[in-house]
Write a structure and sequence with these properties.
Shape: globular
Radius of gyration: 12 Å
Strand content: 35-45%
Order of helices and strands: EHEEHEE
């Protein structure tokens, strides 16, 4: 099974928003295995580990929840969970 790391720039600013959105994201997508938002980063980076390249779905979901979001990159992971060097940027 393939695994991906998806990186987004977001407008998620608070711990409460982060907790609520990640909980909802797990509920609406079985592909999302892990998600976190770096609230200390100026771009409030959302990092998702997923079994599919579902960046369009995630972008639409965050937009519908009232947040700005920009897809930055996707990395495929190897069998040991390490990102492969080849990344997809948009």
């Amino acid at each position: 099974m393939k695994k991906y790391i998806l990186i987004f720039k977001t407008s998620i600013r608070t711990i409460l928003d982060r907790s609520n959105l990640i909980q909802k994201l797990y509920a609406v997508s079985n592909d999302v295995k892990f998600a976190t938002v770096d609230l200390d980063d100026e771009d409030f980076i959302l990092r998702i580990e997923s079994t599919r390249r579902n960046e369009d779905f995630i972008s639409r979901f965050l937009s519908l929840e009232g947040h700005q979001v920009s897809f930055l990159a996707a990395f495929e992971k190897d069998e040991q969970g390490r990102p492969l060097m080849k990344a997809s940027y948009y």
